[in-house]
Amino acid sequence: MDEGALARVRERLLEFGSEMFAGLPRVDQRETGVRYLRGLMLDGRRKSMQPMAARLGVDHQQLQQFLTSSTWDAAVVRRRVATSAVQVVTPTVWVVDDTGFAKDGTASACVARQYSGTLGKVGNCQIAVSVHAATDTASAVLDWRLFVPESWDETCVPDEAGKVANVHARRLRRQPVTLDEAGKKKPHVRKQLPREEQIAQILRRRAASKIPDDQRYRPKWLMALEMIDELAGWHLYPPLLTADAGYGQVAEFRQGLRDRGIRFIMATTSTTTAQSGDAEPVETAYAGVGKHPAPRYPHPARSIKALALDHGAGQATLVHWRERLPAARTDSDRGTGTLSGHFFALRVRPAGRTVREGLPQHGGVLPDCWLLVQWPPGQDEPTDYWLSDLPPDTSLTDLVLLAKSRWRIEHDYRELKTGLGLDHFEGRSWIGWHRHVTLAAAAQLFLTQLRLTDPKAAGQP
C-alpha cells in the first residue's frame, strides 16, 4: 500500500490493532504494534527495521526495542490472530507446511546449512514450520515455530561412544559417511571439533540468540503436533488437516492426528509401504518356547506404488477440482478453464512397526484408509499419492478436492515474503524472530479481511 491507500483504511487498522494488541500491558506497546503493522504494509523493497522506520518517520531504535527487548508476549498476540483468522476465513482445511529463510551469516537464531524447499537445495537458512487455515478463496497463518537444527542443540553432540542424549537425534543419527557421484559410500572429510569445543560453541550461539532452554531439536512433524495442541488449547480445532509428503510419509505423525481425533489427507511418497485394504493377520504357530507370537500378515507389505501399478492406469477417472486462477500478467499465454487430472482411490492398510506396536486396541494392526493416486494418461506410473482416513463412503471427487487444497499456502508464503517482509527480519534473537513473524501474520490477516469484506475497498494490493 502507498500512504494514501493506508490512510483510507486508517480507522479499520486502528480497530484491528486494538483487538490484536489488547493483551499487551502498556499503551506504548499497543501503539508501536499498530505502527509496525503500518510499516509492514507500506510499499517498500525492504521491511527490516531501518527502512520501515524511515518510511514511518520514526527512530528505528523504537521498532528494534519493541521487537527485541520489550516485555510483551508474542503468544498472546498470536492467539488473537489465530482466533480471528479462523472466524474470518472459516476454513475447510488446516495445512501444515514449512518454509526457508535464506541467510548470509551464521549468527541468526537456528541458521544452518539445511535443505529448503524455498531454495530448492541445501543452503544456509532458517526453517520455519507453520499451520494455516484455508479455503479456496482465503487463507491465513495460525501458528509458527522456528526449527532448531541439531547443530544448535548440544544434546545432539555424540559422546565418546557415539551416543547422543537427544532421543530424536538418536533415532535419526546417520553413519558418518556420505555418497559420492557414483553413489558409493565415502568417509566425511570435514574435520570435527573436539566434543567439548562443539558443546561450548553451541552454548555460546544459543546464549547470543537467547534461545530458551526448552527449545531443542525435534523433527518438524512433532513441531506440527505441538502447534496443533497449542491451538487446541486456544479452543481452535481443524475440520481436516493436510500436508505435503515430508509430513504425510511419517506414520507417527498420521497416528498422532488419529490419536487427537483429527481427520487428514496428506501426500506421501511412492515408497510408503502398505497392505491391501482387505488384508488380515493370521495366527502363527507357537513353537513351544517363549512368548506366543502375535498374528502376522501372510505376505510382506508392499510399496503403494506397487499397489497402484497392480490396480492399473485404466481405472483412473478424470476429476476437475477447481477453476484455474487468472494469470498474473496480461501477456501470459497460460490457458484458462479448470484444473483436472486422472485419479483412482484404493483402500489400504499402512504398514509401520513403530506405530503398530503402540496400538494394542487394534490388535497390532493399523486401521485401513484411503490411498488416492494421480496417474496422468500416457505416463508409465503415477505421479502423486495421498493417504487419508476420511470415511469409506467419501467420493473420489471429494478426496481430490481436499488433496489439492494445499495450493493456497503458496499464496500465503508469496504474500508474506514479497509483500509483507516475512523474511526481511535482520535481528538475531529467537524472540525477535517470533515477534516479527507474528506481526507479519497479523498484517496478512488485516489485508485478508479487507479483501473478503469489501473486494473493491481502497488500500488493497
Automatic annotation (TrEMBL):
Protein name: Transposase
Species for this entry: Paractinoplanes pyxinae
Domain Transposase IS701-like DDE: 19-325
Source species, domain of life: Bacteria
Signal peptide bounds: none
